[in-house]
Amino acid sequence: MSVLRVILADQLSAQLDVVAAAEKGVDVFLLAEVMAEASYVRHHVKKIAFLFSAMRHFAEALRIAGHVVRYVALDDPENAQSLDGEILRAVTALCPKRIAITEPGEWRLREGLEALRLALPAPLDILPDTRFLCSHADFNVWAEGRRELRMEYFYRYMRRRHRILMESDGKPSGARWNFDAENRKPPKAGLASPRRLSFRKDAITLDVLDLVRRRFPEGYGRLEPFHFAVTRKQALRELDHFIAHILPGFGDFQDAMVKDEPFLRHSLLSAYINAGLLYPLEVCQLAEQAFRKGLAPLNAVEGFIRQILGWREFVRGIYWRFMPGYIENNALGATEKLPWFYWSGETRMACMREALAHTHDHAYSHHIQRLMITGNFALLAGLDPKAVHEWYLAVYADAYEWVEAPNTIGMALHADGGLLASKPYAASGNYINRMSNCCRGCVYDPAASVGDHACPFNALYWDFLARHRDRFGGNARMPFVYANWDKMGAEKQTALVNQAQTHLVAMREGRL
Ligand code: FAD
Ligand code: DLZ
Ligand code: SF4
Question: pTM above 0.85?
Answer without folding.
Answer: yes
